[in-house]
Amino acid sequence: MSAAEWEMVVGLEVHVQLRTRSKAFCGCSTDFGAAPNTNTCPICLALPGALPVLNEKAVELAARAAIALGCELHPVSIFARKNYFYPDLPKGYQISQFDQPLATGGSIDIVTADGAKKVGVTRVHMEEDAGKSLHDRFPGATAIDLNRAGVPLIEIVSEPDMRSSAEAGAYLRTLKQILQYLAVSDVSMEEGSLRVDANVSARPKGQTEFGTKTEVKNMNSFSGVERALDFEFARQCALLERGERVVQQTLLWDATRNEARVSRTKEGSHDYRYFPEPDLGPLVLHAEWLASIKAEVPELPADKKIRFAEEYGISADEIEQVTSDLSIASYYEGTARQSGEPKAAANWVMGEVQAALNATGSTPDDLRVRPTDLAQLIKMIRDGLVSHAAGKKIFAVMLEKGKPAPQVAMEEGLLQVGDDGALTVWLDEVIAEHPEEARRYFAGEKKLQGVLVGFVMKKSAGKADPKKLNQLLLARAGAG
Amino acid sequence: MAVTHDDVRHVAELARLAVDAERLDGLVVELNEILGHMDELAKVNTADIEKHVAKPVDSTPLRSDSSGPLGLTRPRESFAPSMRDGLFIVPRLASHEDGGETTP
Amino acid sequence: MNTTDFTSLTATAIAARVGSGGISPSDAVKASFARATEVRAGSDSLNVILWSDEKLSVRDAESLAAGIAKAGKGGALAGVPVSVKDNIATLELPTTCASKILAGYVSPYEATAVMRLREAGAIVTAKTNMDEFAMGSSTENSAYGAARNPLDVTRVTGGSSGGSAAAVAAGITPIALGSETGGSVRQPASFCGVVGVKPTYGRVSRYGLVAFASSLDQIGAMARNVDDAALAMEIISGEDSKDSTSSANVVGSYRDQFVSQATSPAPLAGMRIGVPEEYFPENLDEGIRDLCLRSIDALKSLGAEIVDVKLPHTPLAIPVYYIIAPAEASSNLARFDGVRFGTRAARNGSLREMFAETRSEGFGPEVTRRILLGTYVLSAGYYDAYYKKAQAVRALIARDFQSVFGNGIHALFTPTTPSTAFPIGAVTDPYEMYLSDIFTVTANLAGVPAMSLPIGRVAGLPVGGQIIAGHFNEAMMFRVAYALEEALGPEAHQ
């Protein structure tokens, strides 16, 4: 059997940090960057006698995410303790959910080069984060910072529905986009607010039973996940080719070496001894509350794409680009609506706006050119008040100085002259200065029109409206 | 369901308790004696309870996101066994993926 | 104030005198310390008090006096010295749970129950000895040595709140806080001849109570009489936003009824008091049985109707308890790892060694046994057979109580313990020790309120009678207890 005859089977577990002000079970701040252990209290330090109290906002965000992923939210879910020892796990257990999670049975629609497909979401449950172990801070010691301990997370577990690393990548990008639209998380793998563990196995194509899976952890980007999956799949295929067996184990991805190494964790050494958390009652979600959370779920990327196609008539490619993230989509929509020029708005957003964002690393919300301002500029170009080329110069100045387009056009002398009187004066002068070209043009040598227009543009220092000028020349030629 | 020496060693490992050899025999006997009494539970018919659908219950109370932290009346250094630059210090892990102590 | 005067005063009497300016809070505090010295409450003899600091308590008393002077009145416990079990967080005295693993640990925050007592004017004067992490029924399992019963120093105080019971019995403080998981307030109260209350689960905040078994733990009060116990319970009860399992149920006044009741010739008229046969087994100590019958007669003479009832699942309570409590404990005690607080073993070359050595050196044998037991019953393959099954049987035990209280029974009367205080060192088999909770543990499993009050003595040793009521019906429980206490009078201590 050759490698091409094996099929990859992937399921993903995604941990997402919820965007709350305070931690899941105590009032400590979730802010990054505070001095070590300053965002800790009796509860998240797990001091003797301290007790957890659940954060309302965390429930709201978790429910919002689960609804958007098409899950069924359970009216009663149960928190459970997952028991294991680790120095950055203060209580010696993590408060999580086990056999009665918040929500189950959703799906995510993904699109790859192979087409569209639905990936099942097995469950969404709430849990708390651990602290941070710093191994390189002091020689011979590990240092523990518990500022992150107790930050609320949701874990989103997919069905083993993906069949390639590209599908896994598409799943993750689509999920990230959805969560970003929902404003439930910062969804940054770099900052650790989104973390991915992958379960992967290989089986002969056409076989319905799953092969033995391994778990790959420690990826720090989506492309890292894709590379790790390809690496591990190839390793498994090679084993199977040789007639060997895949051992169920955990591997850690090393991004610098581009390889996954077997974790030295003994399999079976984990026995988490889950049991219902006696310090918290069941989480009961009432129908009215759920309805209010449902009502707050914003338009999701898939729906927005359909609507943009209908309302703005831009191409599928353009839609993908202007909906890539929620703030871009809002920026685009504001510009398109206020300018009444959805096509031009798309070009601007994909071109100058995107370039400005890339150059500064800022978000659309930080741009000094607001959608209203850009719409005004687009209208000025449409109406011939400034040329397209001048428009780009104006945009650059607007970005830098935060002034409106008309003011910039005026101050920079970039307004086009479309007034017949001025154009006629320039034209008469050009005809006088270039009698030979003028004679030949009026005699019927039409290709000289561009030359004459060019002379006028030069004389006007680019301000003459070329469209008007052409009309004027044609009118004279027709009359002559 | 007799508890074996291996069982006690296994749970001691899970519970991070060092049980020395001489104590082990005694613990095996004690745990077997205690759990022997528990076997009467197996005889009780609880099918009715397990099937019983929970009646609507009160939810665990929810706290406002802006409730603010509970303070400490004395510094962390006053109760921590070892602290440096505001960090709790523990013996270094051989490497961060070592020893069955990987964070899940 | 001399110690004899002090010892004879109830908490309400002390608070009244402090409030009216008759005595100062410092007088009361100093008298309490003098009494502790007189009875040798420290490690030299009774060993009921682990931590105390007279200077600190006097300072607290003086600042309280200033507050009273300013406000022109004192709280319900103004100037009343109280003892607090060593597993309840206090701000200045250590909170060690009588364990080596917390040696020297002073909590940086305060338990809600302690805060409420202090807000009512009480002054914490002592942290009391206990079985390590409340695991035990004799206060022998203390890292700081066994406590001795003030009524007979060769005998145990009972436990795990033995130090608190003994501090009240010895007249050191009129009120003490203890904690219950399976009878740890009622059983020592019975052994020491004082009143001990376990409230409905959720009635008193557990915030600041070092967890043993979270679904069973409750803080309860001990006092020399029912009135003081009711007063203390009124003060510490009620919803707390820091404990998700605390109940929003309104507390009300337990004591208001005592006044009207006192003048009535038949204060328990119309009440039906159940006597469950399972609590009077054939092998029950004859002396205890006789005293119970005397109390039952007294209840009848108070106008109550006595009804034979059945709580058929009672014999299963000990097995259920010794699965659920150790299971929860194994998890609750995982935080004692030497990382953030408490002691750390000197041998800590690797992280694994640090964890294991810290915990093995820090925990005593009973705690170790229960952690292993609890870990075992939760581990893969055993969860369903043990933990899940025990929870189902627990529900049957709770249902026994529901059906009794749902069928017109207002309260139950039983003995508190199957024996009187036994000699120190007499009970060595763990399971035999567990059986001393046999009459108390059911109320913890069912979550109902229960209390013990002295009903007489056998061979000079106190015997407790237990009153159990329905969920959040502490008022009913206290009403019965108060009437019985009045009816028995001095007989309760004979």
Name the biggest interface.
B-C, 51 and 62 residues
Widest beta sheet: strand line-up of chain B: 2-3
Tell me about the biggest sheet of chain B?
2 strands, antiparallel
- The rough form of chain B would be described as flat
Q: Could you state the order of secondary-structure elements of chain C as H and E?
A: HHHEHEHEHEHEEHHEHEHHHHEHHEEH
Q: What proportion strand of chain C?
A: 5-15%
Helix fraction bin of chain C: 25-40%
- How much is the average pLDDT of chain B? 85
Which structural class do you get from the secondary structure elements of chain C?
A: alpha/beta
Portion of residues in beta strands of chain B equals 5-15%
Keywords:
heterotrimer, B: 104 residues, mainly alpha, two-stranded antiparallel sheet, 3 helices, 3 strands, flat, C: 494 residues, alpha/beta, eleven-stranded mixed sheet, 11 strands, 39% helix
What this model shows, in words?
The complex is a heterotrimer of chains A (480), B (104) and C (494). Chain A is an alpha+beta fold and 480 residues long. Chain A has 15 helices and 17 strands. In chain A, strand 7 (103-112) and strand 8 form a beta hairpin. Chain A is elongated and about 95 Å long. The radius of gyration of chain B is 23 Å and the shape is flat. In chain B, strand 2 (83-84) and strand 3 form a beta hairpin. Mean pLDDT of chain B is 85; it is low at 96-104. In chain C, helix 6 runs parallel beside helix 7 (186-192). The longest helix of chain C has 22 residues, at 384-405. The two termini of chain C are 28 Å apart. The relative contact order of chain C is 0.13. Chains in contact: A-B, A-C, B-C. Chains B and C meet through helix 1, helix 2 and strand 3 of B and helix 11, helix 12, helix 13, helix 14 and helix 15 of C.
Write the layout of secondary structure elements.
The complex is a heterotrimer of chains A (480), B (104) and C (494).
Chain A: E1 6-17, E2 54-55, H1 56-68, E3 72-73, E4 76-77, E5 79-83, E6 93-97, E7 103-112, E8 115-128, E9 132-138, E10 141-145, E11 152-158, H2 165-182, E12 194-204, E13 214-217, H3 222-241, E14 250-254, E15 259-262, E16 275-276, E17 283-284, H4 287-296, H5 301-312, H6 316-322, H7 326-339, H8 342-360, H9 371-382, H10 388-401, H11 405-411, H12 420-433, H13 435-442, H14 449-459, H15 466-479
Helix pairs in contact in A: 1-4, 2-3, 6-8, 7-8, 7-9, 9-10, 12-14, 12-15, 14-15
Chain B: H1 5-14, H2 21-42, H3 47-51, E1 62-63, E2 83-84, E3 87-91
Antiparallel strand pairs in B: 2-3
Chain C: H1 3-8, H2 11-19, H3 25-38, E1 49-51, H4 54-71, E2 81-85, H5 112-119, E3 123-128, H6 162-169, E4 175-180, H7 186-192, E5 195-198, E6 218-223, H8 226-236, H9 256-262, E7 272-276, H10 286-301, E8 305-309, H11 317-332, H12 351-362, H13 365-378, H14 384-405, E9 411-415, H15 430-434, H16 441-446, E10 450-458, E11 461-469, H17 474-488
Parallel strand pairs in C: 2-3, 2-4, 7-8, 7-9
Antiparallel strand pairs in C: 1-3, 4-6, 5-6, 5-10, 9-11, 10-11
